[in-house]
Amino acid sequence: MDTHKEKFKIRLGLFVLIGLLLFVLAVFIIGKQKNLFDPVFKVTATFYNVSGLQVGNTVRFSGINVGTVDNIAIINDSTVRVDMLIRQNVQKFIKSDSEVGIGSEGIIGDRILVLSQGSSDSPTIEDGEEIASTEPVETDAIIQSLEVTAVNAELISSELADILENINSGKGTLGRLIHDDRIADNLSKTMDNLKTSSQGLEENMEAAKSNILLRGYFKKKEREERKKQEAAEREKAKLEKANKKAAENAADEKAKQEKAKKKAAEDAAKKKAKESNN
Question: pTM of the full predicted structure?
């Protein structure tokens, strides 16, 4: 009987010990997540609509969890104040011109606060300072916009289906062009006529050049074209000559400078040798 009681006490003690360990572990994990054991500083922001944000939600900076939402209070009918507790070891990275916005963990996850990076030349944020905020985009507004887009896409698809049906049945200009062989033959004949007409026009131009009355006109045009070409070639030659002369002058100037440097070095060497002899 005594042995049975002792075993029961041992089991009870182990059960209590394991329960206490699990309780301490849970307190430690929750406290670590809520920054209960880390030194923190307070930052506030105001929103028109917090869009489901709750006390205890995460605060992120550069994709890292750096704090939690400490308090949410309604100031007036158009302003909600949100207090954040952020770890002090990241305070030096958050600037006074940083902004905070409301995001979400995934598409349907919990709401979180996201701190943006400020400019590098701005001062570091202070404890209790209020920073600017950006209003969140409501999920209902996004869904409504997607519904309008879906309706428009359905309408466009229906109209395209009607157009393709008319084309396949030979209705309309494009449908007749695809299904009526006569229209295709007419187009082919029209292209052949255009080709023949262009060849005839070339022949007429060659004949006009041989005509005594128009020969002078075409010769004048040829002389003008030749003069333009010759003028362009002269201008090109003149430019090449100027560039060549400029290059030669630059080379002569460089040679003169090198000669002057060499002479100055020789004079300096002679002067140094004379001073050494004296």
Answer: 0.43
